[in-house]
Amino acid sequence: MAENEGDHEADLDAFLDKFRGPERYERAFSPETWEQEFEKIPMFMKKAPSEIDPEQNPDLACLQSIIFDEEQTLEEQAKTYKNEGNDYFKEKDYKKAVISYTEGLNKKCSDQELNVVLHTNRAAAQFYLGNYRSALSDVIAARKLKSNHLKAVVRGALCHLELQHFSEAMMWCEEGLRIDPKEKKLLETRAKADRLKRTKERDLRKARLQEKKEQAQKDSLFKAIEDRNIKLSPVSSKDGNVISASLAEMSLDGFNSESAIGAKVCLDENGSLSWPVLFLYPEHGQSDLISAFHEESRFIEHLMVMFEELPPWDTERKYYPSQLELYYEDEEREEIYQICTQSTLLQALQHQRYFVKAGTPIFFILVKLAPFSKNYFGGKKVHWLK
């Protein structure tokens, strides 16, 4: 016996010597990467890969084939997918949960109770993903299989609430409360839907009143312009077609220049119009905007204020109010009209050849007898407008 024991000890020492020397077990873990290698073993994986290649992961593919054994009944397979979806749901991985529940439903098993749960659970996952319409479709499908399924009713009510279908949300809550009158979530949802419905209706009434008020103001504004025989320039649409500039056909948005310069024509409580007026100085590439030019104001009154101090771009110091001339262009006839600076804005706008374009009257300002002024209009005919 002693000899046998000595032989066994010698064999053990020889076996252990293989690991003490430079030679290692050929499939041993590397000291540097053992953690990564350890996680490649299916049993110890913390997270399964999204796609499994049987050649690269034969062990994992084998485990999956055991879990989803095609020899299982459709009910068993659907239940397995349901449980998998529930695990993903607990991890808040709602996208994968939806995929798992969908796979379960695709089995089309005959267990209607299980199908109800799959639809209802998928609805919950879709809800957390913000896919409220998809979630609503699922709970409707669940209720077709089981009309009194309370979870489906609750989730349906929540979907309608998120979609701002407040009346429908309240109706679903009422149906659910007939199943369980004390269901807290349904009581809360009904109260919230009722409150939001009242708020929405109130805001809608306010919006309609405001719209009616704005329409009345628009009608009054257009009538005031029409009564003054002020003409509006035709407006071109995006496709290049010309839109009629008649007051009856123009919209306020298409008429005013608010989007371009931040001001628009308005009618005050005394029935007077004030316009945004743009002055252009072509010699220097400069401009000025009078945001509210009263129709009875004279041009010279604004010029006196604007040029009380000469602007920095007037390096020749020549833009004195008394030396300035005012013009507008008739683009259709390619003619120029000079306006007396003592005229009012209304007098200029009422001229038979003046057309207000985009709700903003535009005038050119030049210096009398300046070389630039003499050549600016080229061969265009210039008319004097008193």
Automatic annotation (TrEMBL):
One of its GO terms (cellular component) is nucleus. Keywords: Repeat, TPR repeat. GO terms for biological process: protein folding. CDD domains: CTWD_Cns1. GO terms for molecular function: Hsp70 protein binding; Hsp90 protein binding. The keyword Ion transport does not apply. It holds the Pfam family Wheel. SUPFAM superfamilies: TPR-like. InterPro entries: Csn1/TTC4_wheel (IPR044059), TPR-like_helical_dom_sf (IPR011990), TPR_rpt (IPR019734). The keyword Repeat applies. Residues 268-368 form the Cns1/TTC4 wheel domain. Belongs to the TTC4 family. This is Tetratricopeptide repeat protein 4 isoform X1. The gene is TTC4.
